[in-house]
Amino acid sequence: MGCGGNDTNADETAAESIQEDAADEETDTDETADDPDENSAEAADSGSETTEAETSDTAEESTGVDPDLKAFLDSYEQVMNEYCDFMEKYNNADSTNQASMIADYTSYMTSYMEYADKLAAYDQDEMSTEDLQYYLEVTNRVNQRLLSVAE
Fold this sequence. Notes:
Blueprint: H1 8-30, H2 36-45, H3 52-63, H4 67-92, H5 95-100, H6 102-121, H7 129-150
Helix pairs in contact: 1-6, 4-6, 4-7
């Protein structure tokens, strides 16, 4: 994985990608608002529910980690754990089953490359102490898991 450089375009691309992912999640939740029964129930509960933005602010206050960075790193770790699970299954499969798993392998490698590029775009020199600590914790866990699969 490597340290991100001072490449402004890479930083902007990573930030845009994270924002697009967040916008996609908001779109998914907005689609449920089309049901009138749900809208009335939501209106009744709106005073007692915590908004997603408030939850993110609370998460940052309690951990000190930027919520966008945390969301990205959590997603990265999840994808990498899925990849490792797949590789363990692949390594234990016979050659016939391995051949049938090539399409899945290709898909995981594409996801891996996308996440690796985004991860490299983060400039560790610009991170807060809390952000850097969480970044290192997650990347170390992922690297340890990758090593365990390679053994």
